[in-house]
Amino acid sequence: MEEAFGLNIPKTLTETCDPQQVALLVYDMQIGILNQLPQERAQSVTTQVLQVLNIARIAGIRVFFSRHLSLPLESAGVSQLRSAMAWQRVTQVQEVKPWFLRDAPGFQLIPELSPRSSEVIFDKITMSAFEGTFLNLALRDCGITAVMIVGVAMEVGIEPTVRHAADLGFIPIVVQDACGAGDEVAAQRSLASLEFAGDAWITDVATVCSILKQ
Q: For the chain, which has fewer Cβ within 10 Å, the N-terminal or C-terminal residue?
């Protein structure tokens, strides 16, 4: 640990993963999102996410689950409608089918996660899990300095969340093999870009589990 100007600056991943100062963000592990991935890929990322989630629970780390929410078309704004048309590859608003309305089955988290009453579920309409949500305030209020991120999808929502976390002063920890993707090539570009920027730790499930078991 580097000490400077009254600050403790972690120099290793182990130092960053202090259970009292790190939180786990499980990003958008929703039924409707996992169903968009090939079955084998969806099962693989689910298995990896569950490994990290289980060890985080044992270590007493605070856990937050994000869910992506679709607004009804009548209440959606320009950016929401443009994004929906782009994702669904349609050219008219009337052709858009909101995938993640609050009461839709696809909006729910996959049952394997079984969030506990002590864990937090929050909804968002943006790609960054910090924009327009209480996540930043909740983490700061608990003295959290680092955010470990797993879930789906790396190239769509995880990358902007990691960048936003760093801009807010958190140390992001990307567990790369517990982050699924719809487009593997795009996901690798996202990882390479985050690694180049240098704000985030890029690690894997085995390393994180080994550290937290200590």
A: C
Neighbours of 200 (CB within 10 A): 22
Closest CA to 174 of 166, 186, 162: 162
Check if the beta carbon of residue 8 is closer than 8 Å to that of residue 21.
no
Tell me the pairing of strands 7-9 and 2-4: antiparallel
Ranges of beta strands (E only) in the chain are 2-4, 7-9, 22-27, 62-68, 120-124, 146-152, 171-180, 201-203
Spatial distance between the Cα atoms of 41 and 34, rounded to a whole number of angstroms: 9
Please report, in angstroms and rounded to a whole number, the separation of the first and last CA atoms in the chain: 17
| Alpha helices (runs of H) in 133-177, residue ranges in sequence order | 135-141, 159-167
* List of residues 6+ apart from 126 with CB closer than 8 A: 132
How far is 214 from 211, CA to CA, in rounded Å?
Answer: 6
